[in-house]
Specification:
Number of helices of chain A: 6
Shape of chain B: globular
Radius of gyration of chain A: 30 Å
Largest sheet of chain B: 4 strands, mixed
Order of helices and strands of chain B: EEHHEEH
Structural class of chain B: alpha+beta
Number of strands of chain A: 0
Oligomer: heterodimer
């Protein structure tokens, strides 16, 4: 058995040779086959554009998360300096989650970059093969009456058919991978929409029980504890300074200028 | 002999290398059956290397392959559908 790769191209090859067998004018079939190949080339281009779009989306999310990490870190420090350990902890929990999402995004962006490179390479190769096919096609059409033209046609069609099948397979794999990443990006978007990475001082304490509960489930409390201890050590003893960030439990208490 | 690495390209190998390729193919079949991911990666890597040691077919060459190897990023799960029975190469 020739396996998946073999089976796949066999199907396409079979389709092409069936077309060739049925054709009254092999020249026409060659033109048709060439058109199909050009269509595939267009699809590959679309596929590349899709991958690029997904990559850009992840890159944007990554930038946003980086900003949130910095913001939440600052906030945790301020809260701690103001003696509000609870708020500091909440900020650190959000920061930990944002960081772990960031770490997930990074290899995915790299993976999409690799997909983009490979598809671009595939497209280049297919384009060259199509050019070779086009040239051969014209030669075959010119000398069609010869009996060996039939053999040549089927050889060229088989070769290019296999190439098409292979590019089709590369596309399918790239799209499957992109699909997975899209789901990932969606998940991050949803966390963000739920206000998970929001500026803590802008949140009403009332509506956030759910987020807080989820955060506790999602983040490792030992990481948060360790970071909190580190921050405390950095601030030194008697770090209960300005009350500027005393958000406490009061609903809608804003710290400083907010945004 | 022409070998294609799926999603990558075609290479022209000496006919004498078919035997080594077939050997690797058969070994991979048993590794995949055992679910030995590490062994599979190692031998499949060797297989790819062997193919890549050949001359890559030019863009103007429209040839059918004698053997098609699965894509380099294949998972063990996918491989178990490929490397069964006699493997990629009969015998």
């Amino acid at each position: 058995m020739a396996g998946m790769a073999g089976r796949m191209s066999t199907v396409i090859k079979a389709k092409i040779s069936k077309l060739l067998d049925r054709a009254e004018d092999p020249g026409e079939t060659l033109d048709y086959s060439y058109e199909k190949q050009m269509e595939l080339l267009q699809n590959v281009k679309k596929g590349i554009a899709d991958v690029v779009t997904s990559k850009k989306r992840l890159q944007m999310q990554s930038q946003k998360l980086e900003q949130q990490v910095v913001k939440l870190d600052t906030q945790a420090r301020q809260a701690l300096a103001a003696g509000n350990e609870e708020l500091a902890r909440a900020a650190l929990e959000r920061k930990t989650l944002a960081q772990s999402e960031l770490q997930n995004l990074d290899p995915q962006i790299k993976e999409l970059e690799a997909q983009q490179d490979q598809l671009t390479e595939n497209e280049k190769k297919l384009r060259a093969k199509l050019e070779a096919f086009r040239t051969k096609k014209e030669v075959i059409k010119a000398q069609y009456s010869a009996a060996e033209a039939q053999v040549q046609i089927s050889e060229a069609a088989t070769g290019v058919g296999e190439e098409m099948a292979d590019v089709g397979m590369a596309m399918q794999r790239a799209m499957d991978k992109t699909e997975n990443m899209r789901a990932r990006a969606q998940a991050v978007d949803e966390l963000e929409k739920a206000g998970t990475f929001e500026d803590l001082t802008q949140l009403d304490s009332g509506g956030n029980d759910d987020i807080d509960r989820q955060l506790k489930e999602l983040t490792s409390s030992s990481d948060v504890d360790a970071e909190l201890a580190k921050m405390k050590a950095e601030l030194g003893p008697g770090g209960g300074g300005s009350p500027a960030l005393e958000a406490g439990s009061g609903a809608g208490e804003k710290a400083g200028e907010g945004k | 002999m022409i070998v294609r690495i799926a999603t990558e390209g075609q290479y022209r190998l000496e006919d004498g290398q078919a035997a080594r390729l077939n050997e690797l193919d058969n070994e991979i079949v048993s590794l995949v059956e055992e679910g030995d991911e590490e062994g599979f990666r190692r031998l499949f890597g060797e297989m790819l290397q062997l193919a890549r040691s050949g001359a890559e077919l030019g863009d103007e060459e429209l040839e059918e392959s004698d053997v098609i190897l699965p894509p380099p990023d294949i998972s063990l799960e996918e491989a178990s559908a490929e490397f069964t029975g006699e493997g990629l190469i009969p015998g």
